[in-house]
Amino acid sequence: MIEGLLIGLSAAFSIQNLLMVIAGCLIGTFIGMLPGLGPMSIIAIMIPVAITIGDPSAAIILLAGVYYGAIFGGSTSSILLNAPGVAGTVASSFDGYPMARKGQAGKALTIAAIASFAGGSIGALLLMIFAPMLSTVALLFHSAEYFALMVVGLSAIAAFAGTGNVGKAILMTLLGLVMATVGEGALFNMPRFTMGLMDLQSGFSFITLAMAMFALPEALFLVLNPKRSAQGASGKIENLRITREEGRKIAPVIGRQSIQGFFIGVLPGAGATIASFLGYAVERNIATKEEQEEFGKGSIKGLAAPETANNAACTGSFVPLLTLGIPGSGTTAILLGALIALNVTPGPRLMIDEPQIFWAVIISMYIGNLVLLILNLPLIPYIAKVLTIPRTYLIPFILFFTLMGSYIGQNNATELLILVGMGICATVLKFADYPLAPLLIGFILGGMLEDNFSRSMQLYDGIGFIVDRPMTLGLLVIAVLLVVIPSYRARRAKARQEGVAEGD
Amino acid sequence: MALDRWVSFIILCAALAYGYAAFFTMDASLPPFMQRNPIWPSTFPKVLAVLTIATSLFILLGFEKSPESDQEPDIDYRRLGDYYLGQALSLLGLMVAYALLLRPAGFLFATFAFLSCGSFTLGERKFHILLPVAAIASFVVWYLVDEVLGIFLRPWPFFF
Questions:
Q1: Residue A20: inside a domain, yes or no?
Q2: C-alpha–C-alpha distance, residues A204 and A418, integer Å
């Protein structure tokens, strides 16, 4: 581990990579602040840039920097405007916005920055401990287990991502898998479902799909309903200090939530949003009576809890990505797609074959958190000016960047028409309350899922591998349970409700 | 019928077409030596088709009730008339026009036109700010992509 750390240190502290971290954090903060643009859209927009850099460690360091920056920027807009730019920071607005209204905006931002820093750094420490352990276990896996593990991942995402709508989330996952079968597969060398169109020969482009699923519907929603981009002239932000007593108050909260947030982030499908809400709820429940009264009215504990948890969860979500090659969230799925485009296959062999990438990412997490703390905090009053850009300029530029992103990747104007068409479909799906992240994750995992499935079919000459390998069978059973139990429980709860007579 | 069930109906139709292709037409072109493989190019699509059809039927027939939430939904298609639908549609039209014009008109002109028309559609009328901003942005993006990143973008129209 020490050796790896040294490799990572030397890779991460190269001038190029340091610039990448700083640039990524700044860009992420900048765009993440804009209401309606989440980390997924920002990373999707940044991918063509990252791919043209060419060096995989620099590219993923840049994208990871953008990711933390976006979460940090999102909390700034939820504190200042009550308009979270990112779903993971919605809980931060519960107490952050009341604090800002009481004139403590500066203090709220400082607490958010410190909590984010601590959450991210402790998360990175845990990642350093757990990722190598998990990847040693993962090396024992065969293609059959990989296949089963991906099925578990997909069903966990479907079970958690579709809040109460497991069926819809499963349908979206399947749709993503179906879309992944279009084009020429590596294993068979034969075009499938291209309908004779040359443009589909190489399948759908993942960048186009990512833009169409996330950036475009968000931008269209901003057009449809201007209230979403609530704007306010950001007032003066001053007095960034917090007192020692306040620091003592939030320290245990930060400690608890770093660990809790990290482990929630590791679970596929959970991620920063659930971690932040859960962190808020847990801290409110264990607070003393008079502190509980404060929650929702500008409690510093209520702000520190979700801020720590969402950053720790972001770091945690890198564990399954780096060790198993299975993304647990939409954002890490996009990162996975970018890595594959750069000819790096994340998975248990990453640590052995390309340790410099693995360790550089981890070291860059520390640097990224430090950059956010020392660079962004003093700059926040200036960066917050971005919130005053009128939407008449903002929206055309967002649309233009989505178009550019998918054009640069393919250099093909037909791709732009596919982008607009899929963007419209995605908007309709969003209106109908279908979660879109499972679709993209299904699409990205689809190829790998089929490859591993085919390989085990060939090795065992049929479907027998499912019964022959107990681990595969066990994982598949878990996958089925993950999907069945939530819907069964929802049904039982409903049946019980109907059975109970309503009192007057 | 609610929108989500219409969507599942459309997905069902697509899945039926997909399943038909996987079950009946794909295997015809399979070379004989591959037919002895335990797995065919159509195997995985067949599984997916069956699962997709089952899931979309599950939603279409209303087995899954969405949990009722008391919260006002963030954005609601039933109130589509209240929203700025015209603006959204014209922006989509602009994007299509941009896709078609990008090659023949050149990057600089197409981008300038897209940005200024987009802002205009959204109600910007201060042309003395709008036009310079669009022009500078088009040039800066072209410079970054073409010169710095090294991806070729034809700047001028085809007759230059």
A1: yes
A2: 9
DSSP letter assigned to residue A436: S
CB contact under 8 A, A420 and B95: yes
Q: Does A395 touch chain B (CB under 8 A)?
A: yes
What tokens appear for A120 in the block?
Answer: 């991210």
- A421 CA to centre of own chain: 25
**Tens digits of per-residue pLDDT, A293-303?**
788 778 888 88
Chain B contacts in chain A segment 468-487 (CB below 8 A): 487
In a domain, B156, yes or no: no
> Taking CB atoms and an 8 Å cutoff, what residues of chain B touch A163?
67
Predicted pLDDT of residue A501: 39
Q: Is A453 on the interface with B (CB under 8 A)?
A: yes
C-alpha distance from B139 to closest chain A C-alpha (Å): 13
> Which of A178, A211, A417 best probes binding to B when mutated, by most B CB atoms within 10 angstroms?
A178
pLDDT for A93-122, tens place per residue?
A: 788 878 877 777 788 888 888 888 888 889
Residues B11 and B42 in one domain: yes
Indicate whether B155 belongs to any domain. no
Establish if B47 belongs to a structural domain.
yes
CA distance B136 to chain A (A): 13
Range of the domain at B133: 83-148
User: Contact B88/A454, CB-based, under 8 Å?
Assistant: no
Q: Find chain A residues with C-beta within 8 A of B102's C-beta.
A: 407, 413, 416
- Does residue A198 contact residue A183 with C-beta atoms inside 8 Å? no
Instruction: Examine residue A417 and state whether it is found in any structural domain, yes or no.
Output: yes
- Establish if A504 belongs to a structural domain: no
Which DSSP symbol is given to B145? I
| Global model pTM greater than 0.90 | no
Chain A hits for B3, Cβ within 8 Å: 428, 431-432
Question: What interface predicted TM-score (ipTM) does this complex get?
Answer: 0.87
A55 close contact with B: CB closer than 8 A: no
Per-residue pLDDT at A376: 67
A399 touches chain B (CB under 8 A): yes
Which of the four pLDDT bands, split at 50, 70 and 90, describes residue A284? confident
A431 with B29: Cβ contact below 8 A: no
pLDDT one-digit tens code per residue, A130-159:
888 887 777 777 788 888 888 887 887 777
CA atoms lying within 13 Å on the CB side of residue A41:
27
Contact (CB<8Å) B75/A431: yes
Closest CA to A148 of A438, A475, A481: A475
The structural domain count of chain A equals 1
Query: Largest Cα–Cα distance of chain A, in whole Å?
Result: 71
Asked if the structure places residue A131 within a domain, the reply is: yes
The number of folded domains in chain B is 2
CA–CA distance, A148 with A134 (Å, rounded to integer): 17
**How far apart, in whole angstroms, are the C-alpha atoms of residue A262 and residue B68?**
31
In the DSSP assignment, the letter for residue B39 is -
Interface with chain A: mutation pick from B1, B11, B39, highest number of A CBs within 10 Å = B39
pLDDT of residue A297: 79
For chain B, say whether A370 makes contact (Cβ under 8 Å): no
Tens of pLDDT along chain B (160 residues) come to 678 888 889 999 999 999 998 888 877 777 777 777 777 888 888 899 999 999 999 888 877 665 554 444 556 666 666 777 888 888 899 999 988 888 888 888 899 999 999 888 888 788 888 888 889 888 888 887 777 666 777 777 776 6
Q: Which of A106, A88, A86 is nearest to A96 (CA)?
A: A106
Q: Is A54 on the interface with B (CB under 8 A)?
A: no
